[in-house]
Amino acid sequence: MCVVLQGMESCTVSALSCFIAFCLLVCLIGFIFADADFTLLWASLTGQRPERKLKGLVVWITGASSGIGEELAYQLAKCGSRLILSARREDELHRVKRHCLETSELKDEDILVLPLDLLERRSHETKTKTVIGYFGHIDILINNGGRSQRSLFLETSVDVCQALMELNFFGTVSLTKQVLPHMTQRGRGSIVTVSSLFGLTAAPLATGASASKHALQGFFNSLRTELTDYPKILISTVCPGPVQSQIAKNAFTAEINKPPPTVGHLKRMPTDRCVRLMLVGISNGVKEMWISQQPMLLLYYTWQYAPTFAWSVSDRLGRKWVQNFKAGRDADSANLTKPKTS
Ligand SMILES: NC(=O)c1ccc[n+]([C@@H]2O[C@H](COP(=O)([O-])OP(=O)(O)OC[C@H]3O[C@@H](n4cnc5c(N)ncnc54)[C@H](O)[C@@H]3O)[C@@H](O)[C@H]2O)c1
Hints:
Elements: H1 2-33, H2 38-46, H3 50-53, E1 58-62, H4 67-79, E2 82-86, H5 90-102, E3 111-113, H6 124-135, E4 140-143, H7 158-186, E5 189-194, H8 207-226, E6 233-240, H9 271-283, E7 288-291, H10 296-305, H11 307-326
Parallel strand pairs: 1-2, 1-4, 2-3, 4-5, 5-6, 6-7
The structure holds nicotinamide-adenine-dinucleotide.
């Protein structure tokens, strides 16, 4: 009897260990192939669908003429959101609007094309009044417009660092300053700001851009803590790794108005996947979203738990990137490979 019970016990224990090992294996595989932080992935598996949550909402997108902003417009239009499309180039915004109308059930009056320069801060009050005059309210502001950088700090004019702060940080803060009082008055709304993984960590050739995104992280994290009396106002920051867009082509270089010498071919996440995850995050009240393919995401987790080890890995990767850049080669494509020799 005793021997039988012992046998059953050891069977149960080994079944339990197999089950735990299986769960750990599933977690490990999931972790290796994950392209977002766990809260966001959980929301995408079990949370509210954007098609349900965002239908009919009024969403203002800055930087809607290309890349992530353009894709946001397309996916939000399919969700049935009413849109305000802003960027500097009006013709490009009309192109995006036409495509939204062709691929969704929205009507012409559901999309307002509103040219806006983030650098022209004095215009932001009037632009906000125009939007409220047109739709009556704003449910979601997506602060997406911005630029990056491809230059070594030693060769870069401080004017470039200032220009990056003016655009990415002050332009965003200025528009938020106009829209937020409207949301606090209504007691609800979302302000979603596209930061970057290098707003949390760092990247070579992007000192000024990284600083401007770090500033955004600090600003919006602090703002969130000030708005605890408004539980229905969401302040969310999005931290993407490399995503397919025009970002490298439009990057600042060592001097203002000097185009990048080469356009990188860094392995980038498809824009539609990044935007889908963003919309899932917005629909489920996710306050910070990390969105990136591996190994960038893995490196970022390492940064959280073993920063010095992560710095030694990123120093190695960064050195190759800088060597290629100095040699005038495509720096982006070499960030995870050996320096190019031809
Ligand atoms: N693509 C990436 O790899 C990546 C990674 C992390 C963060 N981001 C961030 O995502 C956001 C969108 O960039 P993207 O990748 O789609 O690049 P993009 O160059 O394709 O789009 C940038 C958008 O910002 C607009 N813009 C630039 N200057 C402006 C100004 N003065 N006023 C108004 N609009 C202006 C552009 O017209 C364009 O519509 C940016 O804030 C960028 O920093 C991008």
